[in-house]
Write a structure and sequence with these properties.
Blueprint lengths: L1 E6 L6 H10 L19 H7 L1 H6 L3 E7 L7 H13 L4 E11 L2 E6 L4 H13 L9 H6 L7 H10 L12 E2 L9 H11 L6 E5 L1 E7 L7 E7 L3 H6 L1
Antiparallel strand pairs: 1-2, 1-7, 3-4, 3-6, 4-5, 7-8
Length: about 240
């Protein structure tokens, strides 16, 4: 079993519901969703293009999937998540937009955000004591030979290459899309998510996702609400 700490909106958030249908699965319930048919991508084509993000569920990675270290328990991890959320203030990203990372499409911030960077950095550090060291197979799967020196050090030290100054917040919407199809995919995403992005996005929850066994779909085990910033100022 592996665990991960992700950002995802609450189960009843309109963006969560819309993304679940886009990906074809709701990570909160585990239920399949009928995917839309959007020209020139019929539902069957969209299902193929979203196969990888569908397994992980709609999310942005803060602490990448890990097995529990010896002596650690799920109960302790859940308690730590509650404690972390209670002392971490919610905040608003000024704008969440559709972006592209290489061949992949995702929802991304319109620009750098210090609150978001701090949240990601704190998650990496605070929950690392729960992480078992990567196996050789997991390390090899990340293809460290294709990484730069910084990313290889991050993989060795933190179990994931894209942390700290290599971190990029993204909520993945597709697998790799052929360059010839990218303009049409961008138009399809813009149309499907119209009214929800581009728009400000409140980062008010964290979620513990669980992969019950290797290769199984990730599921939401628990959400933790971040502290209200104004309440903390007057406490």
């Amino acid at each position: 079993m592996r665990y991960a700490i992700y950002y995802t909106p609450s189960a009843d958030d309109p963006l969560t519901r819309r993304a679940a249908r886009w990906l074809g699965r709701d990570a909160f319930t585990g239920e399949a969703r009928e995917q839309p048919s959007l020209s020139p991508f019929p539902a069957a084509a969209l299902a193929e293009l979203t196969a990888d993000p569908r397994r992980y569920g709609f999310h942005a990675t803060l602490k990448a999937p890990f097995e529990l270290a010896g002596g650690m328990s799920e109960a302790a991890l859940l308690a730590a998540l509650d404690d972390f959320a209670a002392e971490t203030p919610a905040f608003v990203l000024p704008e969440l937009v559709v972006g592209r990372l290489g061949l992949f499409f995702a929802l991304v911030p319109a620009g750098p955000d210090a609150h978001l960077q701090r949240l990601a950095d704190d998650c990496v550090r605070r929950f690392d004591r729960f992480r078992a060291p990567l196996s050789k197979a997991d390390t090899d799967r990340r293809n460290p030979d294709a990484m730069n020196d910084r990313e290889r050090r991050n993989l060795q030290d933190w179990g994931y290459p894209y942390v700290f100054d290599a971190f990029r917040f993204h909520m993945t919407l597709t697998g790799p899309v052929d360059p010839a199809d990218q303009p049409a995919m961008r138009a399809a995403i813009d149309s499907y998510f119209a009214g929800l992005v581009p728009a400000p996005r409140r980062i008010g929850h964290l979620a513990l996702f669980v992969e019950p066994e290797r290769g199984a779909p990730f599921e939401v085990r628990k959400t933790a609400r971040l502290a209200d910033a104004e309440a903390r100022k007057t406490a």
